[in-house]
Amino acid sequence: MNRISWLAVPDEHGAHEGVQRLWRKAEDNLGFVPNVFRAQALNGEQFLAWWNYFNLLVNKEGHLPNTERELLAVVVSGINRCVYCAVSHGAALRAYSGEPEKADKVAVNWRHADLTAREAALCAYAEKLTRTPEAMTEGDLAPLRTAGLSDQQILEAVQVIAMFNMTNRVSSALGFQPNPQYHAQGRPGSEVGEQA
Q: Where is this region: Disordered (predicted)?
C-alpha cells in the first residue's frame, strides 16, 4: 500500500472505537474508506470532532444545495493547491452537478467554467476570503445578496470556505493522498456518496 500520510496511520486495531465505526460506515456507503479518515485517525477524538462539524457543513441538508457547497470546496482547494481536497471534492462536484467538464474547469480556474451569476458570485467571494481574508469588508456581501443568497446561506458559505481553508492546510501539511477511486467518481457510470 502506498503512503497516504507523512505521519503514522493506525490500523483497525489501533484506531479509536468511534473511528473504526466511521470506517465501517464509509466502507458500506462508499465501498472504500477515505484516506483522510485513516490519516487523521492518529488523534481519534480530534478527528471525530472535526468530522462531526465537517459532515454537518458538507454532507447534511443545509441552507445551500450540495452542489454549491462542493463548488466552494473545489474553488478553495484549487486556490490552496490541496491535492487531496481538490481531487475528492472535485469528484463530488462532478457527481452532484452532473457536469464533469464544468467541475474539472472549476478545479483549475473557476473563471473558465460556464457558471451562473450566483455560482460566480460564490466563487469570487471564496477566492477573496481564501487569498486575502484581511481585506474583507461588508461590501463583499453585496454581490452575494444581489445573486439571491440569504443571510443564512451567506453564513453557511463562509463556514464552508473557512472549513476548507483549515482542512486544506492539514491535508497539505501532512501529505494526505486521495484515494484512487475519486478519479473516476462523478464521471459517466459512477455514483456519489458522502465526501471527505
A: 177-196
Residue type present at position 94 = R
User: Grid coordinates standing for 41?
Assistant: 485517525
Element (H, E) at 164: helix 151-173
The residue among 104, 101, 109 whose CA lies nearest residue 89 is 104
User: CB under 8 Å to 16, separation ≥6 — which residues?
Assistant: 41, 44, 45, 47, 48
Q: Which amino acid appears at position 19 of this protein? A: V
**Within 10 Å of residue 30's Cβ, how many Cβ atoms?**
20
This prediction's pTM: 0.93
Show pLDDT as tens, one digit a residue, over the chain (196 residues).
589 999 999 999 999 999 999 999 999 999 999 999 999 999 999 999 999 999 999 999 999 999 999 999 999 999 999 999 999 999 999 999 999 999 999 999 999 999 999 999 999 999 999 999 999 999 999 999 999 999 999 999 999 999 999 999 999 999 999 999 999 998 886 655 556 6
